[in-house]
Specification:
Length: about 375
């Protein structure tokens, strides 16, 4: 009688709540008996892994590492290469950084769910280094360090047997930087949680971590000029800076509970999504609530939003382009069908994701025998 293959899950870090962490929770739900390996784990910040068996790296013991994981990037390759995965038949890494760099036996099937090739090492690494608030010496050091990180990242990609991309954009990046093929399986959400409000409350909504590439500065510039109501849900390193430049029509909600966020989505006029994302889960959350999305027309948004049906695209990442699209939306907003928008979002339900992941893993593991 053949025994069930032993599965390990490898995550970059579990220190902040975001889209990757939602995928990680889903992978654990698909493989509930899997052991988790990760560089860092902060149970106060990331929920849903309380009952899992988790092994962290030596970085976990370094003071402040759980709060400032970014500065320990040079140690991450050593951390992942130190994990002993020799007893596992299947290793599934969920990676936008270093998790895919684990070392496995030749007979182990290593599948990487790739959120993006390491963003701060490849296509927009100059932007990352310049935008983040770190002193000049660290910036200079980071630029030199990235050369070595880039070499290791490419080598670590060669350790993966099969890639899954979270979007068409990520698939292209995997081909470009790793010279590997991949299958696209979109991230998911539990669409049963989202409800359509009887009436909207007249405000626009933006949701996410307040960090440079999310472009909340662009949203604030636009709404300062428009003078219409905007609510921002989220926290991050740009919190004080963004509050300082915002007019009175903009309300910062800070951290928002799941229940309050569901309500905020359902009662907004539209979600504003100005960043270039590999995928982006917040547009799906808004659409699952029947609300349209005004998004920058590049990246992962192209996989989820139907222009003119479930949202609208603005073409340039500028204040003027966003303002013009919001004005256009206000003229035609009653044409958007909330039921149709919600039905579209249901195509990305967690049950679809679970089925596709399980089928892919079984197929690739069986083929390796």
């Amino acid at each position: 009688m053949n025994k069930e293959p032993k599965v390990a899950l490898v995550f970059d870090w579990l220190t902040t709540a975001g889209g990757a962490e939602q995928v990680n929770r889903e992978l654990l739900e698909i493989f509930p008996n899997a052991k988790i390996f990760t560089s860092l784990y902060n149970p106060q910040k990331v929920k849903g892994f309380e009952n899992a068996e988790i092994e962290t790296s030596f970085i976990q013991k370094i003071p402040f590492a759980k709060k400032k994981h970014q500065i320990f990037l040079p140690l991450m390759p050593y951390a992942y290469e130190s994990f002993d995965l020799s007893e596992y038949d299947i290793v599934i890494s969920s990676s936008h950084s270093c998790a895919k760099g684990v070392i496995t036996k030749p007979e182990t099937t290593h599948i990487c769910y790739c959120h993006t090739p390491m963003r701060y090492a490849w296509d927009n690494w100059h932007e990352y280094i310049n935008q983040y608030k770190i002193n000049w010496f660290v910036k200079k050091l980071s630029k030199k360090m990235m050369h070595k990180i880039r070499i290791w990242d490419k080598l670590s990609a060669d350790r993966v047997d099969h890639f899954i991309a979270n979007s068409s954009t990520t698939k292209k990046r995997i081909t470009k930087y790793y010279r590997k093929d991949s299958k696209v399986i979109f991230p998911m959400l539990d669409t049963s949680k989202y409800k359509i409000a009887k009436k909207t409350k007249g405000y626009f909504l933006a949701v996410g971590r307040l960090i440079p590439y999310k472009r909340f500065d662009l949203i604030i510039e636009a709404f300062n000029e428009l003078g219409i109501e905007l609510k921002i849900a989220g926290t991050g390193i740009m919190n004080d800076e963004l509050r300082a430049i915002a007019n009175e029509n903009i309300e910062f909600l800070g951290y928002v509970s799941d229940e309050d966020l569901l309500k905020a989505y359902s009662e907004c006029e539209a979600l504003i999504f100005p960043q270039l994302e590999d995928f982006g889960i917040t547009p799906l959350e808004a659409m699952a609530s029947g609300r349209p999305v005004i998004a920058y027309g590049k990246g992962g948004a192209l996989d989820t939003i139907i222009d003119g049906t479930t949202g609208m695209y603005f073409k340039k990442q500028t204040k003027e382009s966003l303002i013009n699209k919001i004005k256009e939306f206000q003229k035609i907003k009653n044409k958007f069908n909330t039921i149709e928008i919600q039905k579209h979002a249901q195509k990305f339900d967690k049950k679809v994701f679970q089925k596709q992941i399980l089928e892919f893993v079984k197929e690739k593991h069986k083929a390796s025998k």
